[in-house]
Design goal:
GO terms for molecular function: nucleoside diphosphate kinase activity. This protein is α+β, with helices and mostly antiparallel strands. It contains 9 helices and 6 strands. Helix 1 runs antiparallel to helix 8. The structure holds 2'-deoxyadenosine-5'-diphosphate (DAT) and magnesium ion. The site of 2'-deoxyadenosine-5'-diphosphate (DAT) has 9 residues, from loops.
Length: 215
Amino acid sequence: MFATRAAPAVRASRMPLAVVAATAVAGASLYTQPSVHLDQAVNTAGADAVSRPTTIAGTFTTPSERSFIMIKPDGVNRQIVGKIISRFEERGYKLVAIKSVLPSTELAREHYSDLASKPFFGSLIKYLTSGTPVIAMVWEGKDVIRQGRNMVGATNPLQALPGSIRGDYAVSVGRNIIHASDGFESATKEIGLWFGEKEIASYTPAAWDQVMADN
Ligand code: DAT
Ligand code: MG
């Protein structure tokens, strides 16, 4: 299913951005399947280690799995950063990295490189680099990549369910508040792009056992 070796993004902290970006993208090609998306993200207990690659996004399908979550400029402008962070905390996820960033055009373009051919790409980059910061975060925990997408809701907020972040706070696809990695490969690329390994903490929250126990 997947190669077990760590993707090169693990070494991102020691590379210039362009190299990080190129390496992160190249990392995706290490995998033999094109993407790790929602339905593939769980229930691999008992599968061999080949299905559990380890990268800067943790070990896939274990509690160490990590997702890159970013509150976009409209979320910061609307002053709902705290509310959004609270949702992840209250759900039972662990904040392992966070910073306010004014992204460069280069960083924004690399983050959304898979959308470079889309007609809205230019305005998307302009919006991300408008001068209002983004809040870049790494959240860790059980099934966090898939659950993060569910918590964020559909790309078009008009299709996002009430109770999701976009379903509760947004009505326009161009101002949909928040980004969440859509698979293990993209989490690996995005965490490696926005953070160095040394910026990601390892700690145990006080109530972690209560949150994590399956009995
Ligand atoms: P998501 O953010 O849900 O992962 P995506 O990766 O397809 O969605 O697109 C990235 C962002 O690009 C999205 O959050 C908002 C913008 N976008 C997507 N489709 C768009 C469209 N049709 N018109 C304008 N902006 C769009
Ligand atoms: Mg996306």
